[in-house]
Write a structure and sequence with these properties.
InterPro entries: Diguanylate_Cyclase, GGDEF_dom, Nucleotide_cyclase, Rev_trsase/Diguanyl_cyclase. With 414 residues, the protein is α+β, with helices and mostly antiparallel strands. Helices cover 71% and strands 11% of the residues. The chain has two domains: 212 residues, no CATH class; 177 residues, Alpha-Beta Plaits. A six-stranded mixed β-sheet has the order 2-3-1-4-5-6, with helices on both faces.
Length: 414
């Protein structure tokens, strides 16, 4: 039980990790697109002002490398997020790989924006760039406090120190410092609750999916039970009707119906007991289940000791192979039948009919002909196989033929 709980816990943890990674891929893609546009505009303005407007920017050569680095970093990040976003099967390995990329991005962009805002504070009296990326990394992306705190604390501390030691601290530096500390605290709190709400929603969604899957499994189990014979695990009459609904979509089709009846089964039950009779039925059903594993074959417990087989688009040779495989498999069980009139072992009367089916009524006709063929076997001697096509006999076992011939000669001599 503990192992099962551990597996469930691992599964839940993996699900959360994968879904959060998917969320971060989408969010980081948005940040990349926004940053590329923003940085391109800023770089363009700086280049225009320095070279064309003849504004003397002493800081131009310091700013430009930082902006260009951030621009190319976000271009690369856009490519990476596109790669992860188009993965058809997002695995836990993908999630952990992306987590490493995300942490690397947060460290690099916070340090870069911290450097830019240090210059901005000195030259232009604001720290907007750092606050923008602090907000996007902390409150917009979903990441645990344990992983976001180190880069946030280090970059914020560096910027605070730069503001304090700057000559303008007593004029406008104190306002920037208070703004930085207050917003950092607020943004961290927002990021914490953002992650908590998302995890709660994902957990509820997972529980909903679990309930839905359990309900689906239960419904399928109930339907299977309703369509399955309890003793043999083969389809019952209701299962046969359900199968016919799917066959109805394939019409017209060539259908072969075989009806298999265990010879002298009442005597078997009376002599060996019903418990052994149930074992025999189970062995016959297991054999039919294996032989009907192909999608164009279907086995039904038709009633008592009688089984019905549907063979779709089988040639006459394939029908004979099916019958021979069935008899050979049963003979391996070596089931004794001391009260049989025809053999010391279990035998079967098998009748079949092949017919081109175009509607449900013709299916009933095909079954009636197969039943007629099986009755001819039982009336002749049992322990044999007779096959019809459209109600006309096309094959009968040698032993049935000999019995029919003896009956004919006896009637003539009489």
């Amino acid at each position: 039980m503990s192992t099962t709980k551990d597996e469930i816990a691992d599964s839940n943890s993996n699900y959360m990790e994968i879904e959060i990674a998917k969320q971060n891929v989408a969010r980081l893609q948005f940040i990349s697109l926004f940053s590329i546009q923003l940085l391109f505009v800023i770089i363009s303005i700086n280049i225009y002002s320095h070279y064309f407007a003849k504004v003397d920017y002493n800081d131009f050569k310091i700013y430009l490398p930082s902006y260009i680095f951030a621009l190319f970093a976000h271009m690369l990040l856009l490519f990476v997020t596109q790669h992860f976003k188009h993965k058809q099967n997002f695995t836990i390995e993908n999630a952990r790989q992306f987590q490493k990329i995300l942490i690397t991005y947060i460290w690099s962009i916070l340090i870069t924006s911290c450097f830019i805002s240090t210059l901005d504070h000195t030259l232009y009296k604001h720290i907007v760039i750092y606050l923008v990326y602090l907000l996007s990394c902390t409150a917009f992306l979903v990441i645990t406090l344990k992983k976001i705190l180190p880069p946030v604390l280090i970059s914020t501390s560096v910027l605070c120190w730069a503001i304090i030691v700057d000559d303008s601290f007593h004029s406008y530096g104190q306002g920037n410092l208070m703004l930085l500390l207050t917003l950092t605290e607020i943004i961290l709190i927002l990021g914490y609750f953002n992650g908590r709400v998302l995890r709660s929603n994902l957990l509820q969604h997972q529980e909903l999916l679990g309930e839905r899957n359990r309900s689906k499994d239960l419904t399928e189990a109930l339907q299977t039970a309703a369509h399955t014979d309890e003793l043999t695990n083969l389809a019952n009459r209701r299962g046969y009707l359900h199968r016919m609904q799917s066959i109805d979509q394939k019409l017209p089709i060539q259908m072969t119906v075989l009806i298999i009846d265990i010879d002298f089964f009442k005597k078997y039950n009376d002599f060996y007991g019903h418990a052994y009779g149930d074992v025999v039925l189970a062995k016959v059903a297991a054999t039919l289940h294996l032989l009907c594993a192909q999608p164009n074959r279907f086995a039904v417990r038709w009633g008592g000791e009688e089984f019905l087989i549907l063979l779709e688009n089988h040639s006459e040779q394939e029908i004979h192979e099916f019958y021979n495989d069935f008899i050979t498999a049963i003979e391996k069980y070596d089931i004794q039948h001391a009260t049989s009139n025809v053999s010391e072992h279990l035998t079967f009367s098998v009748g079949g009919n092949t017919q081109f089916i175009t509607d449900f009524e013709e299916m009933n006709s095909c079954i009636l002909h197969a039943d007629e063929a099986q009755y001819m076997v039982k009336r002749s001697r049992k322990d044999g196989f007779l096959l019809m096509e459209e109600g006309d006999v096309i094959y009968m076992s040698d032993i049935i033929m000999q019995t029919q011939l003896r009956n004919l000669l006896a009637s003539k001599s009489f």
